[in-house]
User: Fold these one by one.
Assistant:
Number 1:
Amino acid sequence: MSGPRRSLLLAAALLTVLATAAANARAQPPITPGQGATEQLFYLVLVPAIGIGIFVMVLVAYAVLKFRVRPGHTTGPAVAKTHDRKLETAWTIIPAIILVVVGVAAFQTLVVTDTIPSNPDLTMCVFAQQWAWGFVSTNGTCPSVASAQLRFPPGDFTVKVGRSVKLIFQSIDVAHSFYIPAFDLKIDVIPGHQNVYWFTALQVGNYEIHCAEFCGLQHYSMVATLHVVPG
Ligand SMILES: [Cu+2]
């Protein structure tokens, strides 16, 4: 089998594998609405991006092979082509369309991930401190950082499946980042500032919580667990 044909076959196989992974990801029920929306956006961008990447590589390989210097082919055409209106229009309009599609999809994802429910079923104050997470449920306002510092309650937290949870983040010391990998949820926890986020867990389970911002020597040990129990 010739080189270009083998490359094309390989590219087609890779795209098929990716498209199958994307289809599987879509078929999986989301763990949270934000996770489902983020995953869809990820594959919407990834699959065409890899396709375009392969297409460009194939074109480069074709040009290198076809126009290489070899016996009988030592110079280019006498009058080299410098303009091609149709081609230039195509390579302007097609990327513009792709950018608009990705922009609209990203905005739709942001609407899902970043719209905090106005009447959450549960509001949690999340405190970050070297090197633990603390969770205090509240009906709206969180204890001040100063009082949390005195009675910092490190530990896990438990929520019922299907309930909307609003999270209010405060750092007691340095910059941290609250990260639940399974939920595709990550938000900075910064000293002197409250960040707010939310989730609704749609599947029962235990989910790891990590710190995703290097915050000191024992950063790696800054873990907790979110327990999602039947409602
Ligand atoms: Cu940390």
Note: The mean pLDDT is 88.
Number 2:
Amino acid sequence: MAKRRGKPPRIPQLGNHGMDDALHAYATDLSSAEPDGLAALRRATWTQTVKPQMLCDELQGRLLACMSHMMAPSRVLELGTFTGYATACWAEGLAADGVIDTVDVNDELHAIQDQHWDALNLAHRIRRHTGKAMDVLQSGVLFETDARPLDVVFVDADKEHQQAYVDWAIEHVRDGGWIVVDNVLWWGEVLRVQDGTSRDPYAVRIHELNAHMKGHPELDNVLLPLRDGLHVARRKPRA
Ligand SMILES: C[S@@+](CC[C@H](N)C(=O)[O-])C[C@H]1O[C@@H](n2cnc3c(N)ncnc32)[C@H](O)[C@@H]1O
């Protein structure tokens, strides 16, 4: 396997939920390479932010881009922008008239986002909202200038309110639209919640969210054990 000298780690924190690091690296190497512009954004994230491990890894980024190409969405909503890496991945497959709205409470990363979205020629496809995700969702701003329904909601902000975000998404995503939630394995801690050996509050909430999505009558779902877990659900058509 090729050495990656001078590059940031592509799979931080892996190894404690059963997916072998070497297999993950193999899958990454045998998938399309991360585009240069995104590699530059990854480097900037690792050199300029204090929690770079929040960044989605190369393989997950390629999966999000692939899903975007499959769905060809006109509207994507992302909760949790961080440095805008996943935003750019989702933007790759947008329909010709497609736009992504992205929300983050942190306004300190705008300069990194602007620099790299400009370099990737994506800035005109992205609408940025600054504030707490629930406030932005409840403000109505997402539909003020664009009444089109949402095709995809990507939930990747704070873990406290994930279920509320998913419930909002079930109400607002179009019939047959998609809800994608990141970090749903919480580095394996959900297994220990399930067998009663952990009461980690984040893991408890995430396990409850996974069960909520699995049991929800309006969703078809698949929980992918990729990196820290990606829950993908299709909103069934309304009666
Ligand atoms: C895991 S990071 C997002 C990673 C990004 N989607 C990616 O894959 O590159 C989580 C982000 O959620 C933001 N966040 C935390 N609490 C929030 C809240 N209540 N509302 C909106 N954003 C929040 C943080 O500032 C952080 O940038």
Note: The domain at 21-235 is CATH 3.40.50.150 (Rossmann fold).
